[in-house]
Specification:
Blueprint lengths: L2 H6 L54 H7 L3 E5 L7 E8 L4 H11 L3 E10 L2 E9 L9 H20 L27 H13 L8 H15 L9 H30 L3 E5 L3 E4 L2 H8 L2 H11 L3 H5 L5 E3 L3 H15 L4 E6 L4 E8 L2 E7 L10 E12 L2 E7 L2 E7 L2 E13 L6 E11 L5 H5 L3 H9 L19 H25 L6 H4 E6 L6 H12 L4 H11 E4 L10 E3 H7 L1 H22 L3 H7 L2 E2 L5 E3 H8 L2 E4 L2 H11 L1 H6 L4 E3 L6 H7 L2 H11 L21 H26 L8 E6 L8 H16 L3 H4 L5 E6 L7 H18 L8 E6 L4 H7 L5 E4 L11 H7 L3 E5 L4 H8 L5 E3 L5 H8 L7 H11 L6 H23 L1
Helix pairs in contact: 3-4, 6-7, 6-9, 7-8, 8-24, 16-17, 16-19, 18-19, 25-26, 27-29, 27-34, 33-35, 34-35
The chain binds N-acetyl-beta-D-glucopyranosylamine.
The site of N-acetyl-beta-D-glucopyranosylamine has 16 residues, from helix 11.
């Protein structure tokens, strides 16, 4: 145990259970947002590097002002007192300084014995006599150094948010930063007006309870338009959210002003899906005002948690890829990147799953019905997006140019969603586009006299952003999907180019200002779109444009199987985006020529690598297009990259090995621990003596020092128990089933897929049930009661996945109603699994299953969420789990099934595989109708036997 950790172990009650993270900023080592690999190198951006936001840069102060507040000196004096350490802090005073200092001591588990204050000219000298948590003097130099650094960081950090310099008020509280009139004209009427404006809005919104209450009640009255004497929980949630949004907007403006001034290289993250879940809790935690809101609401008679529960999920995505985008945004903001997210604002999110008689039914998720306080509609930020039409050749700008004459035009209107970083003022933007009818076009149809139909036709434009496609692994080349992809890409590219041109006009500098990260192939039309804009609209030569494109794009792929790769029929693309098809053909032509030089006339290879797939339906392979144009192709785990290199993109890897990289996925601990498991969060901070792990995950290693401590174990159990009770209540509310929190909660929650093998889990449950039924009473007493929990949605068109859900219900019906086995085994299906359900289930789980057939899960981020909540894993060596095993050790998990390299061999042998007796017995029980829906189950099993024999069974052994 290091000296500092020994020092920092608090005497249990000296720290609040959940130290408010907003109290001050430690300056932290470069944060790691991924559990295992920091994603900073994600973009492999060419020089110059993206410029990170300096931690103190967003205070609205200039550099000269900075010098004037950073004059604090801190001295340690161990001679002054025989039994306490003196910290002497000499600084210009500001309101709140004392609070910041005492807070540091408190959080470090130190006790202030005595404090004195003297004045020396304009300086104050504050002397604190301090002892450690055991009442002893602090003598260890390392500890002293850490305390001193914490003090300095806190004082400087708080001072950074404190105004300085002439003409500004000195407000010490962290939230009272004064705005500086950076754009005030030097003199004249303009100056007077600007000064007046800034004096009217001279401070950021305050976060003391009274100010918060006033803001909330104002929003009740003026935004929600309810009387402040009569409003319900939902209206209170709306008002609270709007007041939080106001605070987000302040930081968001500062961030934009800062980056506009500095003009760094910006990172643009393009994704068709963002699975954000709820925002309120996450926002107040990242803003550092969680406790203030809780207090303020308490005094008004509301509970923060209850209001947070009112929020619906923003389910603008399907599964792993989309949740990764959301975690990515949180991390980019926290790590001070000048980043932007771009996507589509769907009116209907991922369908709601309703279970009727054990079958999944889909209901539309019209999530905007209740308003969305987190977005800001930017009616003035809109772009026309073109579709259909023809390409003509015209004489333009001194040469023959291609001109796309569109057949339809739709307006893309921006909806901005501020994303706050944790422990920083950096608040980045997720800009989502909504489709609106365009005013620019279609005037003619109004002249025809059929006014009503003209309006109705225009309204159809809105369908582009109306609904999220609910499949996560298959793409059927649908026109609407293609229009969605191009719509968001085109608007985003126009926005980026507009921003670039605001400061520069030379496109040679474009790669120094823009990095474009494509999340899977869905946004890959951005490639021909940038080519089109540069060549057709900015009149660059093809070569110049191509050089730029090759420098700015990188992409991540999230799939392992070739069927998951997107293809767009040429006919469809040619009709919707005629100019883009030409550009793709031209790119492919040059690429093929390059290939011939490299590999000779190896037609087999050429046809496999071609962007254009010949065949019954001639198609564009979006993955090939991306690889050809991107400087970096990113896998999401080590084994995923291996599979890309050796199978899916083998030929490309041989050609361009330098392009292929991997960054193992991560999840943000802000969402998956701090928001979802406050009990464990408090415990960790208490035992580590700091909450710095909320930005720097590696610090959790420090818990190892305390792992054997009985007190910690006891507290841990208590936290787990409370989470399990909460989960049991939720299960009761959702399914009407009472489960005992004393039982082991064995959980598998994720999208339903054959490769994820929920089916295998269910077969295992049947086997367990059969064993219990056949046990002697004495043996039954040794069985650990278990509640098996399964949850997840099946894509509406994925028949087998839907049957698996039905089988789960059928088996549950039998097991749960069997009074003979009592509480020894239960099977629960949690309906409508989404982000907020996961936030509730994960902290209450004892065991979680991640049992995909090895070689099928690209990464798998679920296991990371369970793991950081202290849940045991039962997992195959697949995706990121392989790296997790290396980190935590095989002894600390239940490793299961065949390895990646063993699976193909087992598949080969599957035809003649003799299944284990128990397995055959389980199948026959289903076939014999033990589990209610015998006929249905029979149909499943007949399909199953093929799957099982080919893959599943091999992994049971
Ligand atoms: C998923 C993979 C997961 C991976 C996430 C995030 C899609 C299409 N793919 O294994 O199946 O963890 O992407 O990379 O959601």
């Amino acid at each position: 145990m290091s000296a500092i950790s020994a020092l920092l172990i608090p005497p249990s009650s000296s720290l609040p259970l959940l130290p408010p993270p907003q109290s001050f900023f430690f300056s932290l080592p470069a944060p790691l947002v991924c559990l295992y690999k920091p994603p900073t190198a994600f973009f492999s951006a060419p020089k110059p590097q993206l410029r990170l936001l300096p931690r103190r840069a967003l205070s609205g102060r200039d550099e000269t002002a900075e010098a004037s507040v950073s004059t604090a000196t801190i001295a340690v004096d161990n001679a002054e007192s025989p039994d306490a350490t003196a910290f002497v802090i000499r600084a210009r005073n500001w309101i709140g300084l004392l609070q910041v200092i005492t807070r540091v001591f408190k959080i470090l588990g130190l006790r202030i014995e005595r404090a004195t204050i003297e004045v020396e000219g304009e300086f104050f000298v504050k002397r604190f006599l301090v002892v450690d948590s055991h009442g002893a003097k602090i003598e260890d130099p390392e500890s002293l150094d850490r305390i001193e650094r914490a003090l300095r960081d806190a004082i400087d950090g708080a001072a950074d948010r404190t105004p300085a310099g002439p003409g500004t008020a000195r407000l010490g509280s962290r939230s009272l930063v004064v705005r500086r009139a950076g754009l005030v004209p030097e003199s004249g009427e303009g100056k007077a007006k600007a000064e007046r404006m800034f004096s009217l809005m001279d401070g950021f919104l305050k976060n003391d309870p009274i100010s918060l209450q006033k803001d909330i009640l104002d929003h009740v009255e003026y935004t929600v338009a309810r009387s402040r004497f009569s409003f319900d929980d939902f209206e209170a949630y709306q008002a609270v959210s709007h007041s939080v949004r106001d605070r987000l907007i302040e930081r968001w403006h500062d961030t934009h002003a800062y980056f506009k001034r500095k003009d760094p290289k910006r990172l643009y993250f393009f994704s068709l899906e963002f699975l954000m879940g709820r925002s309120l809790s996450n926002s107040v935690i990242n803003l550092g005002v969680r406790d203030q809101y809780a207090d303020a609401l308490n005094q008004l008679g509301f509970e923060f948690e209850v209001l947070a529960e009112q929020e619906g999920d923003a389910a603008q995505g399907n599964g792993g890829l989309a949740r990764l985008s959301a975690c990515q945004m949180d991390s980019l903001a926290t790590m001070d990147f000048p980043a932007w997210g771009y996507g589509l604002r769907y009116q209907y999110g991922l369908f709601r799953q309703v279970i009727l008689d054990g079958f999944q039914h889909e209901q539309p998720d019209y999530w905007l019905n209740f308003g969305n306080p987190w977005e800001i509609e930017r009616i003035h930020v809109s772009y026309a997006v073109k579709f259909y039409g023809t390409v003509e050749e015209q004489d333009l700008n001194g040469g023959k140019r291609k001109v796309w004459v569109p057949g339809e035009m739709v307006e893309a209107v921006a909806y901005d969603n501020p994303i706050p970083g944790y422990g920083t003022r950096n608040t980045i933007n997720l800009r989502l586009w909504a489709a609106k009818p365009s005013d620019l076009y279609d005037m003619e149809s109004y002249g025809t006299g059929d006014y009503i139909n003209a309006v109705i036709n225009r309204q159809k434009a809105e369908t582009i952003s109306s609904v999220l496609y609910p499949d996560d692994r298959s793409y059927q080349g649908k026109e609407l999907r293609l229009k969605q992809q191009y719509f968001f890409v085109s608007a985003s590219v126009q926005d980026i180019i507009r921003r670039f041109k605001d400061s520069l006009n030379d496109f040679n500098q474009f790669p120094e200002k823009v990095a474009l990260q494509l999340n899977d192939t869905h946004p890959s039309l951005a490639i021909p779109e940038v080519m089109r804009v540069l060549v057709d609209e900015e009149f660059l030569s093809w070569k110049q444009a191509w050089d730029i494109v090759c420098k700015i794009f990188s992409c991540t792929t999230h799939t392992v199987v070739p069927e998951g790769l997107e293809k767009i029929p040429v006919d469809l693309l040619g009709s919707v985006l005629p100019r883009h098809l030409q550009i793709i053909f031209d790119i492919n032509f040059s690429f093929m020529e390059e290939l011939k030089k490299h590999f000779g006339l190896d037609f087999n290879r050429l046809s496999q690598m071609s962007i254009v797939e010949e065949g019954a339906v001639k198609s564009i392979r979006m993955a090939n297009l991306s690889i050809v144009c991107c400087h970096t192709v990113n896998g999401v785990s080590r084994v995923h990259l291996d599979i890309l290199k050796t199978k899916v993109f083998k030929d490309f890897y041989e050609l361009w090995p330098q392009k292929f990289h991997y960054k193992t996925n991560g999840v943000t601990q802000r969402r998956w621990l701090v928001v979802s498991n406050p009990g464990l969060c408090g415990l960790i901070s208490k035992w580590l003596g700091t909450d710095a792990w909320i930005r720097d995950m590696d610090l959790l290693m420090g818990l190892r020092d305390h792992a054997g401590d009985a007190e910690l174990q006891q507290e841990w159990k208590m936290v787990r128990r409370i989470n399990k009770i909460r989960l049991a209540e939720f299960i009761d509310a959702m399914t009407g089933m009472m489960v005992s929190p004393d039982a082991m909660f064995d959980v598998q929650i994720k999208r339903i897929h054959e490769y994820k093998r929920q089916l295998l889990n269910i077969l295992g449950i049947i086997y367990r049930y059969d064993c219990i039924k056949n046990m002697k009473e004495s043996d039954r007493r040794k069985v650990v009661p278990r509640v098996c929990i399964i949850g997840g949605k099946a894509a509406p068109g994925y028949d087998m996945a839907k049957k698996i859900i039905k089988l789960c219900h059928a088996v549950g019906e039998t097991i749960n109603n069997d009074s003979d086995i009592d509480d020894l085994l239960k099977l629960v299906f949690i309906p409508d699994f989404n982000v907020s359900v996961a936030e509730l289930v994960i902290p209450g789980s004892d065991l979680s299953q991640h049992i995909s057939t090895a070689g099928h899960e690209a990464s798998g981020t679920g296991s990371m969420k369970f793991l950081m909540n202290g849940c045991l894993l039962l997992a195959t060596a697949d995706g990121a789990t392989i790296e997790i095993i290396e980190e935590i050790g095989e002894d600390n998990m239940f490793l299961f099934g065949a390895k990646v390299h063993e699976v193909p061999k087992l598949r080969e042998k599957a035809e003649n595989h003799r299944v284990a007796l128990q397995f055959a017995r389980v199948l026959s029980q289903i076939c014999l109708g033990w589990y209610v829906m015998a006929t249905l189950a029979m149909r499943i099993t007949s399909n199953l036997s093929v799957t099982l024999l080919k893959g599943v069974v091999t992994s049971i052994s």
